[in-house]
């Protein structure tokens, strides 16, 4: 395995910057999920979004506490990728009047968001481990597990909603 050979302080700076982006990302999702719940017609989908909203509020609190521990405050840095995903999600919902197609569109948008989160938390967990921050790595890993579970549940709901759309 190639060892990290750069300046560990540079990695620490990068880690904190990306925690700040993760906090912005989670807050954006917290603002978006209530709108997605409102637009859902499938009850199972609305419930899944509702439950993940509660988890997402937990993610906000977790990242805030990791940042406070590292820097003494919980500043954010703009996560432009999540801004784009949220904008695209809003646009694609606007384009659909059929309820089932709108549910499918909501699931597709939500899964894109979950996959972005999974990429971010996989990276942050690895960086925390390299930096010797075992407790951070454990918290980031537990967030990652919740994102993966949310994505998996959306995949299974998607299968059922897609069948309804085809019927
Ligand atoms: Fe999250
Ligand atoms: Fe999520």
Task: Offer a quick outline of the entry.
The protein is an all-alpha fold and 167 residues long.
What this model shows, in words?
The chain has 167 residues and is mainly alpha-helical. It has a single domain (8-166), classed as Ferritin, core subunit, four-helix bundle (Ferritin), CATH 1.20.1260.10. It contains five helices and no strands. The chain has helices at 8-39, 43-71, 80-94, 99-130, 134-166. Helix 1 (8-39) runs antiparallel to helix 2, helix 3 packs antiparallel against helix 4 and helix 4 packs antiparallel against helix 5 (134-166). The radius of gyration is 17 Å and the shape is elongated. The model has no long low-confidence stretch (mean pLDDT 94). One fe (ii) ion (FE2) binds next to helix 2, helix 4 and helix 5.
Q: What is the rounded distance between the termini?
A: 51 Å
CATH hierarchy, class: Mainly Alpha
Output the CATH homologous superfamily.
Answer: Ferritin, core subunit, four-helix bundle
Write down the overall geometry: elongated
CATH arch. level architecture: Up-down Bundle
SSE blueprint:
Layout: H1 8-39, H2 43-71, H3 80-94, H4 99-130, H5 134-166
Helix pairs in contact: 1-2, 1-3, 1-4, 2-5, 3-4, 4-5
The structure holds fe (ii) ion (2 copies).
One fe (ii) ion (FE2) binds at residues 52, 56, 114, 117, 147, 150.
């Amino acid at each position: 395995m190639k060892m990290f050979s750069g300046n560990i302080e540079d990695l620490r700076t990068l880690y904190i910057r990306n925690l700040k982006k993760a906090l912005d990302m989670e807050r954006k999702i917290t603002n978006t999920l209530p709108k997605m719940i409102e637009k859902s017609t499938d009850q199972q989908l609305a419930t899944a979004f509702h439950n993940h909203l509660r988890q997402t509020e937990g993610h906000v609190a977790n990242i805030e506490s990791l940042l406070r521990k590292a820097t003494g405050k919980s500043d954010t840095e703009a996560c432009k990728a999540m801004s784009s995903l949220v904008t695209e999600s809003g646009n694609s919902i606007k384009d659909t009047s059929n309820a089932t197609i709108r549910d499918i569109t909501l699931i597709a948008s939500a899964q894109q968001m979950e996959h972005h989160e999974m990429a971010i938390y996989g990276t942050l967990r690895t960086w925390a481990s390299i930096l010797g921050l075992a407790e951070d790595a454990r918290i980031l890993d537990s967030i990652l597990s919740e994102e993966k579970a949310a994505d998996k549940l959306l995949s299974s709901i998607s299968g059922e909603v897609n069948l309804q759309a085809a019927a």
